[in-house]
Amino acid sequence: MNPAAIEALRTYYGYDRFRPGQEKLIEAILNAQDVLGIMPTGAGKSICYQIPALLLDGVTLVVSPLISLMKDQVDALNSAGIEATYINSSLSLKETNERMRDVAAGHYKLLYIAPERLESEQFRAMIRRLEVPLIAVDEAHCVSQWGHDFRPSYMTIVRLLQDIEPRPVMAAFTATATDVVKDDIVERLRLREPERVTTGYARSNLALIVVRNADKRDFVARFIKEHADQAGIIYASTRREVENVYTFVRGLGVSVGKYHAGLSEEERAHTQEAFQKDDLQLIVATNAFGMGIDKSNVRFVIHNNMPKNLEAYYQEAGRAGRDGDPGECVLLFSPQDVVTQKFFIEQSEATEDRKRNDYRLLNDMVQYAHTGECLQLTIVRYFGEENGEPCGACFNCTDTRETIDVTVDAKMIFACISEMKQRFGVTMTAKVLRGANDAKIKQFDFDRLRSYGRLKHMAEKPLVQLIHALVADGYLRMSDTAYPVVQLMEPVLEVMRGEARVYRKVEPEAPPVSRSGS
Ligand code: ADP
Ligand code: ZN
Prior knowledge:
By secondary structure, the chain is of the alpha/beta class. The chain is about 40% helix and about 15% strand. Strand 15 and strand 16 form a beta hairpin.
């Protein structure tokens, strides 16, 4: 590692060592390579461009959409002895001109700007006269229409890039995970063979838990009882479900508030504040809750319903344990939640492409709910981090249930899917295998298939769960369509040839309430 970079880390920030991803990103930038840093909030993005800015000649431009945070960041830099300033709509024309003059005179190492600034030809002309070694783009997903926060002004960053000679190094940062958005960022910001670094997603103090067969109300009641006096959030997918869960929890005699878009702004603000001040122990909420919340001692987050994708899930679940003390994140899965999410997608006014994308992300979410692998590792990999070890704390890592050999049943499922030409979904597959007497089955002559009725001994729910588990473990995949069909993947061949066997944990009768509990 560049000794000057470590020196800067010590003198300006007072830290002894870089976090793993920071080192790689800084090194790449200093070697004049573009970078795409994928890091969640709090992982330490700023240092990745601030330290190169200190070491490179000229002034680094930082494009950030968060005007309200700009001043704080610049103040913090200044008090650390780093010369930085910002230009945004909060300044008068006179102030802007003065600052630009100082920037041009070389008084600053960092200049923060809002993307809207770049729409001004005059402003870009001023920038053109500066020596700019590096442009850092914060919240880079804003450049993508596939992201959740598209901002047209981000498109002008490229124009700026083309204006400046020699071309500055581009460093883009985002917390977003999906490959489509990442590729879009690379393309739209014209990153040149960027070093992609994903880091900081693992949260070692969180215990991730998935519960499939539970009576949800019963589970929630038992969980709350075991976590008396601990702050928690319960997420539900619709306003009505929030109301139902809220009424139920209040009936348990717990201090609880509710939060969804159907309530007045005052009510919501009041609830949020009460929760923040520990006047309320629990909040039952839709995903509308949490955006602006900064409460560090949330001990658990229960998802009463599965959200639309893993990104949303992890963001919401990640509100537990912000203080670094242990937190528990429970996902209560039921097949009905998949139906609800599909309904949301179908109902939306998104383009067909977009819907396909949403279905794919939903499938990933369903797989998370069925995987037998470390849940933390599953998430970290989903975000693109390659390294990592099982967390040792999640439901799957601490699962002591018996492992059983399900090869015979799995082979029957594979055979059935193959006989149906990989053109049907989980429900139909389960029906055929269970020998259901169904009009559609008759219509397709599926009652004549060899696999028809061959898993008659299994109840529908465990069979459907087994199929989902086979998806999660990579034997099968689901298509990205409104009615996903199950398809066979390569590992099936080995199993069919008798070269590999399929194992699974026994599904619990009544799932445990807490990993640490009695
Ligand atoms: P982000 O921009 O990714 O949300 P920040 O850059 O604001 O995150 O950093 C989050 C926190 O982590 C800050 O308090 C920062 O000082 C701290 N931090 C960053 N890098 C390091 C490091 N190498 N060692 C210790 N703390 C760090
Ligand atoms: Zn684990």
